[in-house]
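EI: anyone free to look at a 163-residue chain?
SC: sure, send it
EI:
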Amino acid sequence: MLLGRVLFESGFMSDEWRLSSSSLGRIGAFRRYPSLHLSRGVVGGVPVEIKPQGWGTVLYLEEGREVGRIIRRSWLGRRWDLTGPGFGCDLVSEPLPRRWTLRIGDHPIAFISGTAFSYNKLRISADVSVPAWALALVWHVVVRPWEAAAEPRTLRPVPSPRP
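SC: here you go
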């Protein structure tokens, strides 16, 4: 569970991302694989994978087991449902560019913002403890929404099975 200021950060045009917290320091790291629409990494020493499952659904897996998911609820991708064991909320796009909130009902519990021109830094300020998996799914959807909405392996052909 993360509380306070959380930061996802990468270099310009890099697929390597770091996750850090103001209270805990470095928490994890991810590598994005854009052609496969997925991210792999380690959070708190546990191997994780973030990958789409059909159109508009993204899964968060720890050691191959599903821990949470985010599901697109609006046509333009401005509202998502975030669910997992013991936690559920909405990810909602705000009117200002590069601004999002996590909400339970109409009450914001975390504020998310990118930098002026990119999402190479994604800042999250959480007023309530939020699971790391939930913030990782938020990062995956906000930073690269087309990946979150796409079917796995659509950019790279999957070899046909051999008889």
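EI: Residues 3 and 129 are 5 Å apart (CA to CA).
SC: 👍
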